[in-house]
Amino acid sequence: MNAPYEHGFMLSLLILAIGGMLWLFSPFIPALFLALLIAISTFTQYRKLKHKFSDAVAALIMTLSLTVILIMPLSYILLVSGLEISTLIQTINTNFDAEKTNKILHQTLSGLPLSESIRATLDTALSSNLDGLMANTKDFALSILKGIVSLSSYFVFFLIITIFSLYYFYIDGENIVKRLKYLSPLDNRLDGILFNQFANLAITLVGSVFIVALLQGVIFSIGVMWIGLPALFFGIAMALASFIPMLGGLIIWLPLTLYLYAQGQTADAMIILLFGAFFVGTIIDNIIRPIVIKKLSSKGQKNALNHTLITVLSTLAGIIQFGVLGLFIGPIIAAMAISIFDVYEIKYADSLDES
After folding, report:
1. Three-state secondary-structure class, residue 103
2. What local confidence, expressed as pLDDT, does residue 127 receive?
3. What is the residue range of 319's domain?
4. Is the dihedral of CA 208, 210, 211, 214 positive or negative?
5. Residue 21's pLDDT band (boundaries 50, 70, 90)?
6. Residue 304 and residue 313: Cα distance in Å, rounded?
7. pLDDT in tens, 116-145
8. Among 1-10, 169-178, 284-293, which stretch is predicted with the lowest mean pLDDT?
9. What CA–CA distance (Å, rounded) separates 261 from 49?
10. Could you tell me if residue 175 is inside a domain?
11. Alpha-carbon distance 305 to 309, whole Å?
């Protein structure tokens, strides 16, 4: 057999094998991805334990510890948020009334401190476009909410697969990386860039996102509880929304503030504005988040998550495609795609036209 045909045949078999494996394991992708992120983020601690125990014992200690500290609380949040969001979806489907929504919006608009000309312009715009706007908003909200609740519906199965996978990622992780580097046709330097970028993204996402989400959820729930609203629901909503850079917290606290103010609850609106705009939006989002990311990111490592537009869009797309874990999967897929472009630029720098 001629070498060119042999090479093409082997490449076709490889593509079919990879495609078949992805299709076969597609039901487990969210659990496998979460286990992989956790394993990468905590692999340094696993290596330290290996100096004192065998590989299997060290992996078992890490898996059990993380199950109690991280995976079980996360699964509980998924379950609770799933139940809350399921109720919300049912409410939207059964109680959505365009006329009633129109009345609430006009009441809210009339209660805001706007000039008559601006209020008249907004009122006209709302009246002429409200039906289409509300229908599109409802469909988009339902697709996001259904994406979030999809993972919660089988969280016990998800939990078992995640714990099981995490244990074997610890034991076989280094061998898997070595095997991939050996099979890769790229230079070891370029392989190192890709693997280091993925590891850096995993550590940054898992660490910073959970820390920021926890802080924003707890802080906002305190403000909500202060004015007598359901703290658990709004706290979880704020924690999930905080995964979306820049826009996250805003989509929770701003509508709530405007509604409370328009209903004459000025003091309550100011409290939500304080906790939302100042504590969540300014202190945590703009001061604490960059500090946490800087601490977790490797020194001198270019972070592909700095592309804010791509990060926001990939986060929303990830939720629609993968459910709540799309908050991680979406940005990492987008960031790794950017990293591959960077590797391409390094590999073929001499042949690229810079004019």
Report:
1. helix
2. 61
3. 188-347
4. positive
5. confident
6. 14
7. 666 667 666 666 665 565 555 556 555 555
8. 1-10
9. 55
10. no
11. 10
- Phi-psi domain of 323 (left: phi exceeds 0; alpha: psi -120 through 50; beta: other): left
How far are the Cα atoms of 153, 158, 350 from residue 220, in angstroms, in the given order? 26, 29, 52
Both tokens of 231, joined, read 């703290």
Mean pLDDT of 256-267: 80
Question: What is the distance, to the nearest Å, from the Cα of residue 120 to the centroid of all Cα atoms in its chain?
Answer: 39
3-state SS track over 36-90:
HHHHHHCHHHHHHHHCCCCHHHHHHHHHHHHHHHHHHHHHHHHHHHHHHHHHHHH
CB 244 within 8 A of CB 285: no
As a residue count, the chain comes to: 355
DSSP string, 196-248: HHHHHHHHHIIIIIHHHHHHHHHHHHHHHHHTTS-HHHHHHHHHHHTTSTTTT
Tokens of 292: 């946490």
Residue 88 has pLDDT above 80, yes or no: no
Evaluate whether 196 touches 298 at the Cβ level (below 8 Å): yes
The answer to the question of residue 168 being in a domain is no
> Would you place residue 255 in the very low, low, confident or very high pLDDT band (cuts 50, 70, 90)?
confident
- Does the pTM surpass 0.90? The reply is no
Query: pLDDT of 281-302, one tens digit each?
Result: 888 877 887 777 777 765 445 5
**Rounded-to-integer distance, Cα 82 and Cα 76, Å:** 10
**Alpha-carbon distance 304 to 201, whole Å?**
8
Total number of domains in the chain: 1
Quick check: is 67 in a domain? no
Alpha helices in 112-154, H assignment, sequence order? 116-152
Domain assignment present for residue 244? The answer is yes
